[in-house]
Each structure stands twice: as structure tokens, then as C-alpha cells.
Amino acid sequence: MQAGSSPSAAHQKVRSNPASSTEKCGACGPGFASPLDAMKGPREEIVYVPCIYRNTGRKKPDFLATVDVNPKSSDYCQVIHRLPMPNLGDELHHSGWNACSSCFGDATKKRNRLILPSFISSRIYVVDVGTDLRAPRLFKVVNSEDVFWKCSLGYPHTSHCLGSGEIMISTLGDPAGSGKGGFILLDGETFEIKGNWEKGDKIPPMGYDFWYQPRHNVLISTEWGIPKCLGYGFDPNDLKKGCYGRRLNVWDWTTHTYVQAIDVGEDAAPLEIRFLHNPDAAEGYVGCTISSAIHRFYKTEQGDWAAEKVIQVPSKKVEGWLLPDMPGFITDILISLDDRFLYFSNWLHGDIRQYDISDTRKPKLVGQVFLGGSITKGGPVTVCRDEELQSQPDPFFIKGKRVPGGPQMIQLSLDGKRLYVTTSLYSAWDRQFYPNLIKDGSVMLQLDVDTEQGGLTVNESFLVDFGKEPDGPCLAHEIRYPGGDCTSDIWV
After folding, report:
1. Residues in CB range of 341: below 8 A, 6 or more apart
2. Is the dihedral of CA 454, 458, 464, 467 positive or negative?
3. Cα separation of 236 and 238, whole Å?
4. Count of CB atoms situated within 10 Å of the CB of 395
5. Where do the record's region annotations for Disordered lie (predicted)?
6. Around Cβ 158, how many Cβ atoms within 10 Å?
7. Residue 446, CB-side half-sphere exposure with 13 Å CA sphere
């Protein structure tokens, strides 16, 4: 797909393909035949959320929470199960599956193990969710020593299953905390480390997230920063020193070799990357945190890859903050399964945004809601100049609770009508930017989405308060559905 083209035609091709019908598949594997089939999937009833105690002052292990999100349930908005990890200080972060829609045609595969890499300890936990969806149990621990010795990598982040049945995990660095953008490969049956996915001598200087698209023989990874720099908090003195990433790194999917770097700007810190879900589409978006920009990446007519900035969130001139200019700090993005809407969170400014991407080169803002953040009225920060707002937003209250922090991780329901939000980014940065988040705990919220015209409204009856946990307030991060979702599943 070339620059400026629309995904709709290719999506219609997927829709009309007889093989995409689950009814005609017989005994199918996990997930859904196509993104549009996934939109017809069942409504989410429970979600899994990693909850973190590292850097909170509470000597408790991180745990995986199972949260009831079924409005017909008596346990609605309650944590119904907690699976504590066997170690302290892991910093659970993101999670992925042993099998997803990339394995749809393989009836021998089941989505029954959740992969939980630990960002700081470099352990990898494998959780059994197949025996009891509502009460996961620990299945296996991959020790950090194995990660270090077998791959010479550390600080694992994103986990994706592959159509081969293997599991691939990106990393930020080497065992010493220097930057290194490599990938760990796990066996999909034994969960033993098989080694590195990448081949050849060329390796990016940093890593973070990734997405792959076999139809275009490509994997693209991103760069947050050097672990030993960002691990203890955000130091403005690290800017201009090359501590934060600036590239999208392009890999040849077949040969596993690093073939191209796309520069998106000094200290941009590109984090979450999403291809359009339609597997024929050769384009997608990446959110750059520090530069607070959304770049569209795409395959060129020459066959290589390029990027163009399509959204810029203006910084705000402020007093009473770390720097005189406060970026929006885009920390998570996602695309609806029909490739119609792009969503992202501004963790510092405090808003969630919805863009219509029918024209992928010209996203149109159609929904926005403020859920806290650093610029609310009555706080320590005074906004002196603002290109977007007439006044500072009001503090955000729900069910009588003032929500600390800002919107961070997001997850969309399969049908696109509900957007779930949590408020913790990373414990060391939470402690620095939002001390009350450490004291009061994070929350999970839910927004109702207008999928016709666009628009976001807060569901005032939905609040999961992780400040009320039995072992004390904790930090809730990424959200996963048992049946897969738009940030875990890849169609091939």
C-alpha cells in the first residue's frame, strides 16, 4: 500500500474471502480468521492486569490481577483473583500470548498461556490461564540468568506469538543495562529459551516495542532508551546525550537481519508501534513519547520504508514543573480492528484522544476527554501558554475519588465501543511525576466510544480502584482479554 492509500479496499478483500469465515474452518486454532471477524467476537467479561509494587515502598511481589468487567456480574469492577509472583522487584509490565490469531489455522494451538516478561529483573513468567480463566496459576519461570547467558540480552518488554508457534520478546538492553535492541525466542511448547531471533552483526542501539507483517516481509521495532539511564527516573540532563531513542528499526522478516533505520527525531523516544490490522496494509503508526508526535510509517514504491509526522501534540509553557515546556507524553496508542480509529494517551497533559484515520495521511481528531494529568486546576503547575486549551482542565473525579496520575495504557473492546484505561506508566517514573499515584494507587477506567461519528465519554459507573488492594495501593499497567485483543493479535 503506497502513501496516501486507504485500507478499506484491502479490508473488503479480507472480508469477502470465504476462508475467513470461522464457520467454514472446522477445527480452527486460537483467535479469529480476520480483524473484521474479531470485531464480531464475544464481549469481554474479565481482563488481566499486571499490578506492580516495585518502588512503592511496599515489600510485596508484583501480581497478575483478574478483573471482572461484566456489567451483569455481582463482581463488576472488582479484582476477583490475584496471582502473586514468587519474587520481589520484578516490575511486570507488558504481556503476550503463547498463541494468537497468527496461529488461527492451526487446530493444535491453544491460547492458554500468558507470557509475562519482567522489565527490571529480566525474568519471564509463563502463566496458565487455560485451566481456569478466572484464576490463573503460575506455570513456569524462565530465570534471568538464562536470558543473560543464552541471548546476552536483558530488560524484556513486548511479547508476541509467531505463526510458527514460537514466542518472541523484544528487549531494551544487554545484561549490564546498556542499550541493545534484540529479541528473545521461546519454544512455544516447553517455553525454554531457543536463543536470539536476530541474525547478523548489525543490531540497533536500543529496543522497545515491535510489530511484524509477513506479507510484506518486515518487522519494525522501536527505541525507548538506555535502561541504566531511564531505570531510575527521567533526568532532563540525559536529553541531548543520546540516552533516548530516535529510530524505527526495520528488519527483514525472512532473514532476521536489520536492514534499515528510520529517524523520527532526536529524543523522540518512539514507543508503541501498530501496523494497520489488515494484513495486506503496508502502513501503520508509532507514538513518540518525548516529542509527543504520531508518525505514520509506510512502504515506499521503491520497497523500503519511510515515516511522516501526521499528528503533533503541542507542548505547554508552564511554571512549577520539571521543565519550562511540558510535552503531552504519548505513552500508548492503538488502532481499532476495522482500521478506522486511532487512539492515544497523553500521560502528562492528561487526555485520551480519538482520531478518524479513514485517510491515513490526515488523521482527524473526533474525540477527546481529560482524565487527570499534570496541568489540572489547583495543582502545582501553572500553564502560561497553551495552543490548544482556553483554561486548565478540572481535576478528574469518579465515584467521589480524585484520580491521581494521568491516562496511560489503553485497550479497546473487540467491537470498538469501550476503551479501558489504566494510569501507571513505570514505577520509577510514576514516583517522580505523580507521587500521589504511589500513595493512593492507580485506577482502571472505561470510556464509551461513539463508533459512528467519533467521540469519547466517561462511563461514570466504572471504576477499579487499585488503591484498595489487600496488600496496599499498587500500580496497574497493561490490559489483556483472555480471547485476544487489538494490541496482542497479528493476522498473517
Report:
1. 335, 354, 355, 356, 357, 366, 416, 449, 451, 454
2. positive
3. 5
4. 16
5. 1-25
6. 26
7. 23
d(CA 268, CA 287): 9
Residue 18, helix vs strand vs coil: helix
The grid cell for 379 is: 495543582
Annotated domain spans of the chain: 8-476
Give rounded-to-5 percent helix, strand, coil for the chain: 10, 35, 55
DSSP state string for 337-395: TTS-EEEEEETTTTEEEEEE-SSTTS-EEEEEEE---SS-TTSS-EEEE-SS-SSPPPP
Ordered per-residue pLDDT tens for the chain, 492 residues:
444 444 443 343 333 343 333 344 556 889 999 999 999 999 999 999 999 999 999 999 999 999 999 999 999 999 999 999 999 999 999 999 999 999 998 888 999 999 999 999 999 999 999 999 999 999 999 999 999 999 999 999 999 999 888 999 999 999 999 999 999 999 999 999 999 999 999 999 999 999 999 999 999 999 999 999 998 899 999 999 999 999 999 999 999 999 999 999 999 999 999 999 999 999 999 999 999 999 999 999 999 999 999 999 999 999 999 999 999 999 999 999 999 999 999 999 999 999 999 999 999 999 999 999 999 999 999 999 999 999 999 999 999 999 999 999 999 999 999 999 999 999 999 999 999 999 999 999 999 999 999 999 999 999 999 999 999 999 999 999 999 999 999 999
Fold category of 8-476 in CATH: Methylamine Dehydrogenase; Chain H (2.130.10)
Determine how many CB atoms are found less than 10 A away from the CB of residue 364: 12
**Residue 216: φ, ψ to 5°:** -115, 15
CB contact set of 322 (below 8 Å; sequence gap of 6+): 234, 236
Q: Is 122 left (phi over 0), alpha (psi -120 to 50) or beta?
A: left
Of the candidates 306, 301, 310, 314, which has an alpha carbon nearest to the alpha carbon of residue 348? 314
pTM of the model: 0.94
Residue pair 46/134 in contact by the 8 Å Cβ criterion:
yes
- Phi first, then psi: give them for residue 37, nearest 5 degrees: -65, -40
Partnered with residue 307 across adjacent β-strands are 297
**Contact partners, residue 263, CB within 8 Å, separation at least 6:** 246, 247
Q: How many residues does the chain have?
A: 492
CA pair distance 489, 164, nearest whole angstrom: 14
Q: Which residues of 7-19 are buried (b: 16+ CB within 10 A; e: fewer)?
A: beebbeebeeeee
- The upper half-sphere exposure of residue 158, i.e. CA atoms within 13 Å in the direction of its Cβ, equals 25
Q: What span, in angstroms and rounded, lies between the C-alpha atoms of 96 and 84? A: 18
